[in-house]
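Practice problem: predict the structure.
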Amino acid sequence: MVRPPCTIHLVRSFLTGVVSGTFYGTGLGSCGITNSDTDFIVAISHIIYDAFPGYTSGNPNNNPACGKKIRATYQGKSVEVTAVDRCVGCAEFDLDFSPSAFDQLADPSIGRLHGVQWQWIS
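Answer:
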């Protein structure tokens, strides 16, 4: 499937939803950046990553999703995170947060959050 060129308008409307969220140990992500657990980052599902507007496969470091901002909200708490990785184990709309970002939404002992709302903000 061929997608149109990426614009902010397309990004904002591209695959936003209510999902579950987890957290993971960070490191070198698909965007080619090494992050730490204290960074406010997120891995998006491989389905969204691979179909992101403007991505033509090849080098994952060049995916237009890399560096895009997402606002996630759970039970009245919000966090802004940067997309830096591709989550192979995630369902289509799920997000995988860094531990610090997850901690802004809920206690890590919960493990998985159901009903996280999110949207692209840049």
